[in-house]
Design goal:
The structure holds 2 protein chains of 2 kinds. Chain A is mainly beta. Chain A has one domain: Sandwich (Immunoglobulin-like). Chain A is about 0% helix and about 50% strand. In chain A, about 35% of the residues are buried. Classes of the chains: A mainly beta, B mainly beta. Chains A and B meet through β5 and β6 of A and β5, β9 and β10 of B.
Chain lengths: ~110, ~110
């Protein structure tokens, strides 16, 4: 069955430090993959997406993610975290063409220390 | 991306009552979805709102409990019927376009049932 796993429930980093949030998926073919961010009391904002092609994708707010088929991973990275990045981050998988339904990971809550 | 609004943004309701949540988009969209996010949890798809026909519900969700309307390509409603405290959640609508992979989310409706 298709699934998305975010192994880290909470992550704390210092402002200015680098960040990597992990996402692993289970899917029989190449999935469509997404990262969303949810600030407190807000809806979800799309950070970036991977459909095909270049495995390193750039997103908004200085985020990037790398698709690694061999590891079934789509980890989110940022070289220098800002205090405003504190939020919940969700990885999501959309099954290939023909369906538009998402499967979400359980989320990683990021805390940024000043 | 589309601008999505939801009404109400939050509500506190009594057990046994019903609440209708509205989702309005500033442009015509092909796909509309309703999600539930229980406290501290990830997002779970309730149903796909189909324009001009009955919604398509996911396993565990039924029309009697979560009736959905979608009279046109810019508007949908979700009703939470006969509410219990277990229905306390954030309810989010999302939209997408056929042929494009990503979904865009509304700000959510925070529902508390006493």
């Amino acid at each position: 069955a298709q699934s998305v796993t975010q192994p880290d429930i909470h992550i704390t980093v210092s402002e200015g430090a680098s960040l990597e949030l992990r996402c692993n998926y289970s899917y029989g073919a190449t999935p469509y993959l997404f990262w969303y961010v949810q600030s407190p009391g807000q809806g979800l904002q799309l950070l970036l997406k991977y459909f095909s092609g270049d495995t390193l994708v750039q997103g908004i707010k200085g985020f990037e993610a790398e698709f690694k088929r061999s590891q079934s991973s789509f980890n989110l990275r940022k070289p220098s975290v800002h205090w405003s990045d504190a939020a919940e981050y969700f990885c999501a998988l959309r099954e290939g063409s023909g369906t538009y339904k998402y499967i979400f990971g359980t989320g990683t809550r990021l805390k940024v220390l000043a | 991306s589309a601008v999505i609004s939801q009404k109400p943004s939050r509500d506190i309701c009594q057990r046994g009552t019903s609440l209708t949540i509205q989702c309005q988009v500033d442009s015509q969209v092909t796909m509309m979805f309703w999600y539930r996010q229980q406290p501290g949890q990830s997002l779970t798809l309730i149903a796909t709102a189909n324009q001009g026909s009955e919604a398509t519900y996911e396993s565990g969700f039924v029309i009697d409990k979560f009736p959905i309307s979608r009279p046109n390509l810019t508007f949908s409603t979700l009703t939470v019927s006969n509410m219990s405290p277990e229905d306390s959640s954030i309810y989010l609508c999302s939209v997408g376009q056929t042929g494009q992979g990503e979904q865009f989310f509304g700000p959510g409706t925070r529902l508390t049932v006493l």
